[in-house]
Amino acid sequence: xxxxxxxxxxxxxxxxxxxxxxxxxxxxxxxxxxxxxxxxxxxxxxxxxxxxxxxxxxxxxxxxxxxxxxxxxxxxxxxxxxxxxxxxxxxxxxxxxxxxxxxxxxxxxxxxxxxxxxxxxxxxxxxxxxxxxxxxxxxxxxxxxxxxxxxxxxxxxxxxxxxxxxxxxxxxxxxxxxxxxxxxxxxxxxxxxxxxxxxxxxxxxxxxxxxxxxxxxxxxxxxxxxxxxxxxxxxxxxxxxxxxxxxxxxxxxxxxxxxxxxxxxxxxxxxxxxxxxxxxxxxxxxxxxxx
Length: 291
Known about the structure:
Blueprint: H1 3-15, H2 18-25, H3 29-43, E1 48-51, E2 54-57, H4 59-85, E3 91-97, H5 99-104, H6 106-116, E4 120-126, H7 129-138, E5 143-146, E6 156-168, E7 190-193, H8 199-207, E8 214-218, H9 221-229, E9 235-238, H10 239-242, E10 250-253, E11 259-265, H11 275-290
Parallel strand pairs: 3-4, 3-5, 7-8
Antiparallel strand pairs: 1-2, 5-11, 6-9, 6-10, 6-11
Helix pairs in contact: 1-2, 1-3, 1-4, 2-3
């Protein structure tokens, strides 16, 4: 079995184009086409439907695709394990993370990690809650750094509690209070994220049986903060997310202390992740404890 043939087919399906698959794998288009044709000959049936608009998997190809993806991932884990036995730390780690984690944790973490493990490549993907869940389910990332909800079934390693705060304009009357009652969000004009992007805030309101008085619903964190700065309403966001904006806004804790737990979520047990991933995660844990 040729792992390269499997990678060629997986890339062709992913991009819907032999040319784009060739670019992604740094091969020529005829080489990719030849590898996939050879794979079809090995299996005795077509794997791709080819047309002027690109390529797509046949029914048989779709059935085999997740198995192929699993084989490629396990082969990469095997290669990393062999290198680890020889005392060489190599491999690639694909991480999906919230914007707050990407901005406030990862730049320093990746710098220090690269200095210690220069042969381990890190691919970092910034996403919201919905996107990260999709990436985990599709196997596009090795693990996520974010939060999970009670209904999620992902293995989860807690890293740090992150307080959820009421975010207010500088001149808002509520700034006179030391803490904000969660039910205040039913009375005040609120700027809230969409349900699929910030599940932590939604979970807190749901648990308290609070229905925020939503006047604007925004998908981007920076846009929400900018609108609060302009006095268009209040919101509920995490402390980590707003730490670079503390000079322009006011933050108050919720009366009933509310936190979200940031951690590592994976599709499989963390002990089953690649050697490179299992090198990165303890490194991240140690950095968080020191900072």
